[in-house]
Amino acid sequence: MSNSSEVQKMKTSQEILADEDGTSRILDEKLMELQSLFEVSQTLNSSLNLTSILDNMLLTPMGKMMITRGIVLLYKEKNKLSVETLKGLPQELVGKIIDEKIDISEPTFLTKEDEANLTTFSFLVDNNIVLLLPIRSSDKNLGYIGFGNKILNKDYSKSELEYLKSLSNIAATSIENGLMVLKLQDINRRLDKKIQELNTIFEIGKELNSTLDSDKILNLLSYAVMGEMIINRCLIFLEENGEMKLQMSKGLQSTDELALFEKEDFLEKLFELTDPIYLKKENEYSSPLQNFQKTKFPVIVPMRIQNKTKGILAIGERITKTPFYDDDLEFLFTLGNEALICLENARLFEETLEKQKMEEELALAREIQQKLLPKKCPQLEKYEVEGINISSLHVSGDYFDCIKLDENNYCLAIADVSGKGTPASLLMANLQAVLNALIDSNSNLEEITGRINNLIHKNTNYDKFITFFIGILNIQENSFQYVNAGHNPPFFMHKDGNIELLESGGLILGMMPNVPYEQDKVQLKQGDWIVMFTDGVTEAQDKDGEDFEEERLMELLQENKFASAEVMKDKILTAVKEFTGDVPQSDDITLLILKVTG
């Protein structure tokens, strides 16, 4: 009995010792794991280099557990995982984007036997990853760490899974810091690149702004773009007179390719492009982009000003075959717009020079024209004569003249050429020359007017004509003989204020050849007036579009019938100016006034 008890006591003691040894081993293993995790944590936290962090995170458990392969995937874009590092797998997989919706919060075993795994984790299953753990920080997944089978094909124990889970949690903070550092580095790189681009744009801008030669600006732009983008081909299209045209081509010599960029329908559609476009080889595009794609111009950059596309910059492929990035497109867009402003300034400068040259020529033409008009009307003993021409433009289509024929006869003429500006002034000069060549003291006004009409008709188009009034004052007979060729009838005002119209004559000059003209004659007495004018007086308009009209002119003459011819002239001009106010003068104003004083 006692022996049996002793044996029983001995067994119990052995079991206790065995249990104590097992617990001790477990504690030792836990202690070792904690020590390992602590060391790994120190290693991970000692670096901010993401690659180093991920390599340590992967290699430590693989070496400890003799795992054949491992992989780390991190979220770089929403719902898109990127292979950041791997061991035991093909190196070309690094950087691959995994477009699979993985969403696990606990360690998960992957098997080919599970159909769900074959769809959700197809990439990992295909690469023999059997265990996947989330890398979690602040209740969100930064990514996943995956492991293959062990070398001896043993299963992962519970304690190993706990170790791996703890490791991924410990590493999450370091990974998050590493990602932040990468982000900051990327921001710094982008800032450095932006600064470099701004400096480049500034330097190129200085060159572009240093000239007002459009061709030089285009050359500077093309060579700057080719140098910065490392390309050997570019095209520049610019709007000209409402149409887009190919202004410069670098590196494109094929006539067939050039023909694609000269088609009218293609050029019209270029105005529709508003944003930079990077043409992808795998995509299909409609016109006009397909023409650029066919000829290997992958980057199309609109050149815009005041929200309107005024040009297109087309960029060929890089010599290095490297792709273009958003920053490149933004740089080209900024540079293109800067160049467009310089081109616009050059155009405006050229227009200013041309306008200045034209104004100088018009000023010279006005000076010549003013010399064709009488500087001063003849001052006679019993007559006052005043004339004036005020052009609405630089040169006038109106004409008046006072020509001494002999001691007793003086020719007074007034005319209004159709239209305004330079063409009208040239025809006016022609009329002045013809009249001065034909008129003399023995002239027959009917014949002279007919000859002038035939000459004007012969040498002008059908839409050019002249209203013309000519009279001869005989101071000895106190008579005024005249012909009115379609001109505003002059007012013949008597001393009592009664007004007659001098209408006898015929058709406007230049309308048709061989037109008969009829002359008439009036007898002049003291206090009589003959007021000749062009329609720039009676058709002058106020802000409401109302005409000055002949009635208003008649009333003005009657009110000032006792004034001098000079005062009458000034009164008429003042009245017209007050009537029109701030409305710009729309037509030439010409007056020729005769008053009988004795």
Number of strands: 22
CATH superfamily of the largest domain: PPM-type phosphatase domain
Helical content band: 40-55%
Return the domain count. 3
Question: Mind explaining what this structure looks like?
Answer:
With 598 residues, this protein is of the alpha+beta class. The protein folds into 3 domains: 18-181, GAF domain (Beta-Lactamase); 211-348, 2-Layer Sandwich (Beta-Lactamase); 376-596, Phosphatase 2c, domain 1 (4-Layer Sandwich), CATH 3.60.40. The protein is built from 15 helices and 22 strands. It has helices spanning 2-45, 50-65, 115-120, 122-126, 158-209, 214-229, 255-260, 264-269, 289-294, 326-372, 421-438, 445-459, 535-538, 550-559, 565-580; strands spanning 70-77, 80-87, 97-98, 108-109, 131-137, 140-147, 234-240, 243-250, 277-278, 299-305, 308-315, 383-390, 398-404, 409-417, 466-474, 479-485, 491-493, 499-501, 505-506, 520-523, 529-533, 589-596. The strands form 4 sheets. It has a 6-stranded antiparallel β-sheet with strand order 3-2-1-6-5-4. Strands 13, 14, 15, 16, 19 and 20 form a 6-stranded mixed β-sheet that branches. The longest helix is centred in the N-terminal third of the chain and has 52 residues, at 158-209.
Please name the defining characteristics of this protein.
598 residues; alpha+beta; Beta-Lactamase; Phosphatase 2c, domain 1; 6-stranded antiparallel sheet; 6-stranded mixed sheet; 15 helices; rod-shaped
Write the layout of secondary structure elements.
Layout: H1 2-45, H2 50-65, E1 70-77, E2 80-87, E3 97-98, E4 108-109, H3 115-120, H4 122-126, E5 131-137, E6 140-147, H5 158-209, H6 214-229, E7 234-240, E8 243-250, H7 255-260, H8 264-269, E9 277-278, H9 289-294, E10 299-305, E11 308-315, H10 326-372, E12 383-390, E13 398-404, E14 409-417, H11 421-438, H12 445-459, E15 466-474, E16 479-485, E17 491-493, E18 499-501, E19 505-506, E20 520-523, E21 529-533, H13 535-538, H14 550-559, H15 565-580, E22 589-596
Parallel strand pairs: 16-19
Antiparallel strand pairs: 1-2, 1-6, 2-3, 4-5, 5-6, 7-8, 7-11, 9-10, 10-11, 12-22, 13-14, 14-15, 15-16, 16-20, 17-18, 17-21, 21-22
Helix pairs in contact: 1-2, 1-5, 2-5, 5-6, 5-10, 6-10, 10-11
